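Exercise 7. Given the components listed, write out the predicted structure of the assembled complex. Treat all entries as one system.
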Amino acid sequence: MTVKELCESAGFSPICLPDPEREVEGGYCGDLLSWVMGRAKSGQAWVTIMSNINIAAVATLCDTSVIILSEGVMPDAGVAEAAEARGINIAATELPTYEAAVRVSQLI
Amino acid sequence: MRPAVCFIKADSSETGSDMSDSVKFRFDVDGSNFTTAGQASVQVKKNLRELGIPAEAIRRVSIAMYEGEINMVIHAHGGVAEVEVFEDKIVIVLSDTGPGIPNIELAMKEGYSTAPDNIRSLGFGAGMGLPNMKRYTDGMKIDTELGKGTTITMVVNF
Ligand SMILES: Nc1ncnc2c1ncn2[C@@H]1O[C@H](COP(=O)(O)OP(=O)(O)OP(=O)(O)O)[C@@H](O)[C@H]1O
Ligand SMILES: [Mg+2]
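Answer.
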């Protein structure tokens, strides 16, 4: 399933989707950036409550398919623009991290 | 691992001096700016892709370099990052003039971190950076002197 389809089916709000056709292959949940760097795999949807600019770099280097900001978190100022420029997809949801991840798992 | 010492010496030029078939990138890492932290690693990822390096090697290099780059920003007021690409391996050298690492064995332990609270609130400070660097590379060497600085050399074969 593509990132765009996932957002539509799951009801995640797109923040920026410069690469909407990217395929979602599994998921990873985590907020400690170097933990995510060590574990997240290419193509995964990354569910996190971290909203600062460094998530764009982490997503770029881990090559995750989309950052899903959970628990009603919104990106800090400037993050969406930076992500858009780097081709990083970001979506947001009011759902808690666990439920957001379950929804990803059910849909893909 | 052999050329590590040569790189540290040949630190000024941007091409691989007398070592013929290599491409070298050099970046100044700004130690005061958190919004640009990680830029050198992101740029290296792009450059390596253009050179046609295998994806898995690019991933390992850029993740290991990112961890080192962030460490230079958080713990050492910035520094210099150099990446040299050879036919079958990539060598990353990160040098800073920060406080040095008092106990390398401790610093290498998963979960050990001296990151202050304001840095932790950004998602850093899990104490996983150095372990990740070791895990993602085929060789890693830390040269450090208290009050002088730290140079970390990493090699990724492909
Ligand atoms: N370049 C450096 N100069 C001085 N000290 C360093 C340097 N790099 C690492 N350290 C020390 O080693 C510790 C462990 O580093 P490591 O990267 O594993 O964890 P961290 O940076 O604290 O957290 P994380 O990388 O998980 O966000 C640091 O907390 C710091 O005390
Ligand atoms: Mg670190």
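Discussion: DSSP finds six helices and five strands in chain B. Chain B touches chain A through 26 residues (CB under 8 Å).
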